[in-house]
């Protein structure tokens, strides 16, 4: 019997990354056969689930860790500009799909929620003012406001001021153009678009192995999670977008490019309230400063979340530790990920990040009272009876080889591609989902270099600024932000 005809593309993992890549490829190559495989009963149950992430449309409008205070007193905004640029690419793609009726009404997955930074203490206030002065003149941050006036901040977010000592020195910035994104809903909408245009979606199927044949085609081994039946399929291109499960699959693929990578899992919790009276008093995503040694994903923030048209508030995250690489993963995920090629990088990264280890220990030992005290630093009159603890998603930070240090711990995302471009995977976390589109564009350019030129007109139809930098042109930035804001129903300006 001759082997079944291979798929053109197989996407492993039913989250925002696979759905985004599939949607882009379906636009540039409508006739390609695509299959998306998810091990769980539904799509977007891991990191893309709205209660497993903060839903922030990460654009550095409020996240202080993307701006660095330099010794000379200036503030480096280069990372903030980069993150904002990337989010605008994602917004353009979503806007295009909405305009073409390929996605439903935008409020099903994106809503306008102001982004704020809030700090207290003389040094922090001085930093926030310097940050504001550096950002306000940039076209991507036009409309940012700064205030130390309690009445003004109260008008932006009453919960921050009610019950706060007036003697405390505090300050805030605000951007009305911030967003809250339900990446679970967006993932399912993108997957529905794929299914409606010929893609095959399968759930309850776990990938157990990958091997590349002499003809360059990959064989993917599958096992049903119910009944345990096994099967195989073939594909010319494979994307491993399985979140924390991606590292193990890339290691099993045997590609040399995956050697040396390790993973450090970090879990998290949030306090949540659905009390309508409490929720009605706060409509903003308010970010503060991270504790010393805390990873970027642990920056404290008080967030409005809008899921299925209903608003809630979340505060956190409170970091924890589990050896699992996924919420649904195995307790053996971490030990089984250790290979001869990544032992040295992992040990070196551990040695250089003892402050992170200590931070995680203190978080694990924190009492309920201590956790609630952290919320009251943002919301002084918060009542314990209104809030309950939820467990967020697992994140796996990337550990990679480094010529000087032996190994380094990364807090961003890492695209790993095979030398021949027939397989690629994504490792890491923050800022993750918000930058899914530019990350997948990077992957496409690396894996399909001979096709990108022919795809460029279609890519520019979807993303008008493809190949351009908004930060180079205030007029282009203003036009682009205005167009996507109107099509996605996002507030503009102050």
Automatic annotation (TrEMBL):
Pathway: Carbohydrate metabolism; tricarboxylic acid cycle; oxaloacetate from (S)-malate (quinone route): step 1/1. Its cofactor is FAD. Signal peptide: none annotated. GO terms for biological process: tricarboxylic acid cycle. Coiled coil: none annotated. It catalyses: (S)-malate + a quinone = a quinol + oxaloacetate. InterPro entries: FAD/NAD-bd_sf, MQO. The keyword Metal-binding does not apply. Its EC number is 1.1.5.4. The keyword NAD does not apply. Keywords: FAD, Flavoprotein, Oxidoreductase, Tricarboxylic acid cycle. It is an enzyme of class 1 (oxidoreductase). One of its GO terms (molecular function) is (S)-2-hydroxyglutarate dehydrogenase activity. Belongs to the MQO family. This is Probable malate:quinone oxidoreductase. The gene is mqo.
């Amino acid at each position: 019997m001759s082997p079944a005809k291979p798929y053109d593309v197989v996407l492993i993992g039913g989250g925002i990354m696979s759905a985004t890549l599939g949607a882009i490829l379906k636009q540039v190559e409508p006739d390609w056969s695509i299959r998306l495989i998810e091990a769980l009963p539904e799509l977007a149950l891991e990191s893309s689930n709205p209660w497993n992430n903060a839903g922030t449309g990460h654009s550095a409008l409020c996240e202080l860790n993307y701006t660095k205070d330099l010794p000379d007193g200036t503030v480096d905004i280069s990372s903030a500009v980069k993150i904002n640029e990337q989010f605008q690419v994602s917004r353009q793609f979503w806007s295009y799909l909405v305009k073409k009726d390929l996605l439903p009404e935008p409020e099903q997955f994106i809503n306008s929620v102001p982004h704020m930074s809030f700090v207290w203490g003389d040094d922090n206030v001085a930093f926030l003012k310097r940050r504001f002065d550096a950002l306000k003149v940039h076209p991507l941050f036009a409309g940012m406001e700064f205030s130390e006036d309690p009445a003004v901040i109260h008008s932006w977010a009453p919960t921050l001021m009610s019950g706060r000592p007036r003697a405390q020195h505090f300050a805030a910035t605000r951007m009305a153009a911030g967003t809250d994104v339900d990446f679970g809903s967006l993932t399912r909408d993108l997957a529905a678009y794929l299914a409606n245009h010929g893609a095959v979606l399968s759930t309850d199927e776990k990938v157990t192995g990958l091997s590349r044949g002499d003809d360059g085609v990959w064989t993917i081994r599958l096992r049903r999670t119910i009944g345990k039946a096994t099967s195989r399929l073939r594909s010319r291109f494979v994307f491993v977008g399985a979140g924390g499960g991606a590292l193990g699959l890339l290691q099993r693929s045997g590609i040399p490019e995956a050697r040396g990578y390790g993973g450090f899992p970090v879990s998290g919790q949030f306090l949540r309230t659905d009390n309508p009276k409490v929720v009605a008093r706060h409509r903003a995503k308010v970010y503060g400063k991270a504790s010393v040694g805390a990873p970027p994903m642990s920056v404290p923030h008080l967030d409005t979340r809008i899921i299925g048209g209903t608003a809630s508030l979340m505060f956190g995250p409170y970091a924890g530790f589990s050896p699992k690489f996924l919420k649904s993963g195995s307790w053996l995920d971490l030990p089984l990920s250790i290979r001869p090629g990544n032992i040295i990088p992992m040990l070196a990264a551990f040695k250089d990040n003892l402050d992170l280890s200590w931070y995680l220990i203190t978080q694990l030992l924190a009492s309920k009272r201590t956790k609630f005290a952290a919320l009251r630093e943002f919301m002084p009159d918060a009542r314990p009876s209104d809030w309950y603890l939820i467990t967020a998603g697992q994140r796996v930070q990337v550990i990679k080889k480094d010529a000087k240090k032996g190994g380094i711990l990364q807090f961003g995302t890492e695209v790993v591609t095979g030398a021949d471009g027939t397989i690629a995977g994504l490792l890491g976390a923050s800022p993750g989902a918000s930058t899914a589109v530019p990350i997948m564009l990077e992957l496409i350019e690396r894996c399909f270099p001979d096709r990108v030129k022919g795809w460029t007109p279609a890519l520019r139809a979807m993303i008008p600024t493809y190949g351009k930098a908004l930060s180079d042109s205030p007029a282009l930035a203003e036009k682009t932000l205005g167009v996507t804001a109107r099509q996605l129903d996002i507030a503009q300006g102050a």
